[in-house]
Automatic annotation (TrEMBL):
Protein name stated in the entry: Thiosulfate/3-mercaptopyruvate sulfurtransferase
Domain of life, source organism: Archaea
Residues in Rhodanese domain copies: 21-130, 161-265
Keyword hit for Transferase: yes
UniProt-listed PANTHER family: THIOSULFATE SULFURTRANSFERASE (PTHR43855)
Pfam families hit by this protein: Rhodanese
Keywords, alphabetical: Pyruvate, Repeat, Transferase
Organism: Natrinema salaciae
């Protein structure tokens, strides 16, 4: 459906369906346990709920859980460092994208986002209620260095404001109008999703949509939202499209406000209004 699929950080249901019998392709369902157990899940999937890979000591920011804690989660799920992980949820991939970002940050080389979600998969393929037998592993995380990581902090974002960087706010309109970083453009993360298929829009359509907002591969891009969940989805999509100069403001607006960073407010004309 989208030509960027399968050779990138995003994979199609067809790609995954043809690899369900591969023991090195591990499916991670990030929904709540009641959904995993009660509604069903993809065959062979293990459940690592979204709340388990957030920093529980900092609920408002929803930050990374720490390398050791994340390694324990993957080890308990029976995942090895050289496995191909495919993550999914039932919310267009936004929670699963956060898992993808987290796994990449802690050095897992091959982690993908399923294009679509549980409901999209269920339109064409079978699901199951059987929980797989899992043998735990000793998983060791290998966090990216600051030079390798896309994550940036307050000072780096403040410096980006002085350059020609595009600050991209992935939140809803009312949030954007209440407070936003100076000069930010609003690009709701859900704009890339086809409501009917629940999958990503075609590549050419995505590129045109992003270009309308000034989000182009030749620009330095800084993503933020409130607690770094929604920008995870946009980050994965931009990565799949081949964008290379993309920064991920982990603290997002919550940290920015805590540091008394300058903000703007009120309505602003956007591409979708024209």
């Amino acid at each position: 459906m989208v030509s960027l699929m399968d050779d990138s950080v995003v994979v199609s249901p067809d790609w995954l369906a043809s690899r369900l019998d591969d023991p090195q392709v591990r499916l991670v369902d990030v929904r709540d346990a009641w959904e995993f157990d009660g509604i069903g899940h993809l065959p062979g999937a293990v459940n690592i709920p979204f709340d388990s890979y957030r920093d529980e000591s900092d609920v408002d920011r929803g930050t990374l859980p720490g390398a050791a804690a994340f390694a324990d989660l993957l080890g308990e799920a029976g995942i090895e460092a050289d496995d191909t992980i495919v993550a999914y949820d039932d919310t267009h991939g936004v929670f699963a994208a956060r898992f993808v970002l987290t796994a990449l940050e802690y050095g897992h080389d091959d982690v993908r986002l399923l294009d679509g979600d549980y409901s999209a998969w269920n339109q064409s393929y079978e699901t199951t209620g059987e929980t797989p037998d899992v043998e735990s592993t000793t998983y060791e995380a290998d966090p990216l260095s600051p030079e390798e990581s896309p994550l940036v902090g307050y000072d780096a974002v403040a410096a980006a404001l002085e350059r020609d960087a595009v600050l991209v706010d992935t939140r809803e309109r009312d949030e954007f109008e209440e407070a936003r970083l100076p000069g930010a453009v609003r690009f709701d993360w859900r704009e890339v999703v086809d409501d009917e298929t629940r999958r990503l829009k075609p590549e050419a359509e995505l590129e045109a949509l992003l270009a309308e907002h000034g989000i182009t591969p030749d620009r330095e891009i800084v993503l933020y939202c409130n607690t770094a969940r929604r920008i995870s989805h946009t980050y994965v999509v931009l990565t799949a499209l081949g964008y290379e100069d993309v920064h991920f403001y982990e603290g997002s607006l919550t940290e920015w406000l805590a540091n008394d960073g300058e903000v703007e407010s009120g309505p602003v004309s956007t591409a979708e209004d024209d």
